[in-house]
Amino acid sequence: MCVRVRAQVLGVEALHTRDVRHTHRLLIKHILALRSISILSHTKCVLILESNLAFESQHLLHALETAGVKNWVSLSEGQQGSLGWLTTHERKEQMCLLLREAMSVGRIALSECFFSTELGDREARQRIKDELSSFCVVNEAPKTTFGKFRKTYTGKLYGKQDDLAIALQLAMIGCQKV
Length: 178
Prior knowledge:
By secondary structure, the chain is an alpha/beta fold.
């Protein structure tokens, strides 16, 4: 028996602010919106946050605790036990290829319950499409005779954003590891 699993994107958010408290409130609002879907009301929320030098994942998790949000877990593989998911060059390549493969064979789709508390359905769908369409592999030749060839995975060319593309990639790699 062959079972084909399709990952479903339930919702996305995009917010550009200098005040991290807005980001914290949006994460809480998004989780509560997910839990308002009856079939998801009692599920454990698995967070796959990017590990970075600014410790943003730790601040987000602290905000969840402070707000009293229950029944969640954060995947961790950061240095010295820090929370978050490492996004090394090798991991970015792996994530990019995994999402591309899932999209090409129909193993990921937007859910019938898809939502965005911040953007609205139509704008959120367009934002995903735009970011995924802009995401690319940039190859740079060495700048010196003995320099190395450089490959970068990004959607941030020409001032564009790639946060949703990276979030989808993190979700795909996280689902593979769990």
